[in-house]
Amino acid sequence: MQKSPWLDATTQLVLNLGCTSLVLLPIALPSLLLLCVAETAGGRLTGLACLLAVVFTVLAVARRYSKPAGKRWRARAAWGSLGLAGVLLVAAYQQSPRGEPGPNSPVRSIYLAGGSFERSSLANLVPELDQFVMGSYPVGAADLHISFAQAARLRGLLQEVYRPLRADPDFLELGSHMNLAYRELFGMSWDTGHAYVYTPGSAPKSARLPVLLFLHGSAGNFKGYTWVLKTFADQHSFALVVPSFGFGAWNEPDGVRAVERCLTWIGQQPGLNADSIVLAGLSNGGKGVTRAATAHPGAFRALFYISGVLEGARMPVLAEAWGQQRPVRLIHGAADRRLPLFSLQAAVRALAQDSAQVRLRVVEGEDHFLFFSQPELVLRAIEEMLAPR
Fold this sequence. Notes:
Elements: H1 9-37, H2 41-63, H3 68-94, E1 107-111, H4 122-125, H5 128-142, H6 148-166, H7 169-174, H8 178-185, E2 194-198, E3 209-215, H9 223-236, E4 239-243, H10 254-267, E5 272-282, H11 285-295, E6 302-306, H12 315-322, E7 328-333, H13 342-352, E8 358-363, H14 370-373, H15 375-386
Parallel strand pairs: 3-4, 3-5, 5-6, 6-7, 7-8
Antiparallel strand pairs: 1-2, 2-4
C-alpha cells in the first residue's frame, strides 16, 4: 500500500501491518500449531523457522515507518530472525531422511515415470507423524463428516502407527512422498510414478512372491499404510507394491495408467509372481480398484475394498468383467459417517448379482478409519479371502 499524503506514518504503519498479517496468517498459524504439537526435532525446527520468517517480514514492514534509531534495531532484528530461520532449516535438512535405505532393506521406493526423492521438501523436513498430528486439528474443525472426537481418536491411532515406524531405521530413512499430494493440491506437477515396495526378508530367495497391490485413499500415500501391511506380507510371504497417486483421485483417467505401470513393473521382476496379484484399495482407492479391475480383470487374483468408495453405476460392469470364480471382499465400519453403510448396499448387490464370491463384512462401532483402528481385523480378512476353500 502506497503512502497517502492525508495519512500520518502511524496510521500507514497500522494499515500495512494489517495487510501483511492477512497475507502471513496462512503461514503463521500452521507454523505455530506445528511448533506446539510436533514430536520430532524436524517438526519443531521447521515450525520455528517458519515463524521466524514471519517475524522477519513484519519487522521489515515496520522498519519503513520507524525513526532512524528504530530503523537500525528493526533492521538488525529482521535480518537476525531471517538468519536464524535459515540455520534452523539447515539443521532440519541435516536430520531429514535421504530416501535411500540400506542395500539389504526390505522396503524401498521406485520411480516409474522418471521422478526422484525430494529431500528438501517440507514433507521430509517435517516427518509424517507431525504432519498428520497437526492436520488432525483443522480436519476436526472443517470436515463435516469427522467430529472433534473422531479427529482426536484418529490422532491417537496415527501416533500408535508412526511411533514404532520411526524406530525402524529402514522406514525412517525411506522418507515421505506426501509432497506429491500437496503438489497436486496446489495445481503443480506431481506424477513421478513413485511406489513403495516391500519384500519380506524371510522369504526364500528363489521364490516368486505373490503381490498385494494397494491403492491409498484421499490425502496421499501415507507411509503408515505400508508399515501396517508389512505384517501381512511378513506372515504370508507377500510382496507389497503401494503406488503414490497424488492426492488420491483414482477416478481420474491416469489412475488406471498408474496401476498399469505397476503391473508392467511387477511382470519384469523375476522374484515376483505376476499371475498372483491381489488388488486392494482404501477409501477413495476403491475407485481405482473398480476401474483397474474392469479394465484388466485377468490381471488380478482377488479384489479387496477397505472402507472403499463404491460407484453404483460401475458395479454391474465390473461384475460382468470379473466373473464369478474369484473373490471380492469388502470390509466397512458400521459407524462410517463419510461413507454410510446404506450408501454401499445397492452397489454391493449389483456387484454380487449371482456370485457367491462377494462378501461384505461390517464391523460394528467402527468408523472410516477402520484400517488404523482394527489393523489385525483387516489383515485377517485378507488372509481369509485367500485361504483355500
